[in-house]
Amino acid sequence: MKFVIAFCLVTAAIAGPVPDLKPYHPMHRLGLNFESARQTDGFIVGGVQVGSGEAPWQVSLQRSSHFCGGTIIDANWVLTAAHCVSGTSPSQISIRYNSLKHNSGGSVVKASAIYAHEGYSSWTLDNDIALIKVATPFTLGQTNAEKIALPTGGSDVSAGSSITVSGWGYLKEGSGSLPTNLMKVSVNVVDRNECNGYYGDNQITTNMICAGDVQNGGKDSCQGDSGGPVTYNNQVVGAVSWGYGCARPGYPGVYTRVANYRDWIKNKSGL
C-alpha cells in the first residue's frame, strides 16, 4: 500500500492536476489521499448525456483542469464536497460555468474564499460539505447558468425516491476517457439502516444519503464526480461524497445530506 501511494505521488507530480477521486469506503482508503492518489478521466456510470438547460447549476472546479464538480446556489456561491477543497487555497481554484463541457465554453471565474465544514473528517467522510465564494459573481439567468434551490433544513429524501446525479466522472471504476459533455444518472435512495447493513460498522450517518441499484449495480457516480450536484424536486439535496468502488452491486453511492447543513450554510453565506 505504501508503494502504491508513493507511486501515485510521483505520477501526480508528473501529470499535474487530474480529476479528483470520489473516495472509496473508509475500509478501503486508497483514494482518500486526494492530492496524491488522483487518477484520470471518465464519466457517470450508466448515465446519459445532459441536454442544454437540464443542469444549469452544474460547475467544474479546476486547477489547470477539471478535478471536482460543484453546484451554483447563488450568484456568489458554489456548494461542493469538503474533500475536494480541504487544505486548498482560493488562489488554486477556478470555476467554469455556463457550459456542458468542463474544458471549453462558458465562463471561468476565480474563487475568493473557501469554507470546508469544521467537523469534516477525512477518515469517516462525515460532514463532507464545503462552500466556495467566487471573486466575480456568476451571470445567471442563462440556459446553462442558473442557481438551484436549497432544501428545507432537516428534510430528508425518502427511500425509493429517484434522485439525479451529474458530473464528468469515470465511465467505469478505475478507467475510462474524459467525456466531452456533462453526464447524468438517476438512482433510487436506499434506506439508511439498510445501507449501513451493506457497509457495516455504522459508517452511514444521518448526514449522508445512500442511492443506487443495490441488486444489480451499474448506475452510480464515480471518480471525478466528487462534490457535484445531487438533485430532487428542483433542489440540491446532496453532494457526491464517497462509495466502495463505483456501481458495484451491494454498495450504493453515498452523498452528503445538504438539508442537515442549512444553518451552517446560512452562517457562512447568509443564504
UniProtKB/TrEMBL annotation:
SMART domains the record matches: Tryp_SPc
Signal peptide, first to last residue: 1-15
GO biological processes: proteolysis
Keyword Hydrolase: yes
UniProt-listed InterPro entries: Peptidase_S1, Peptidase_S1_PA, Peptidase_S1_PA_chymotrypsin, Peptidase_S1A, Trypsin_dom, TRYPSIN_HIS, TRYPSIN_SER
SUPFAM superfamilies named among the record's database cross-references: Trypsin-like serine proteases (SSF50494)
Record has Disulfide bond as a keyword: yes
PANTHER family per record: FI18310P1-RELATED (PTHR24276:SF98), POLYSERASE-RELATED (PTHR24276)
Family the entry assigns: Belongs to the peptidase S1 family.
UniProt protein name: Sui m 3
Originating organism: Suidasia medanensis
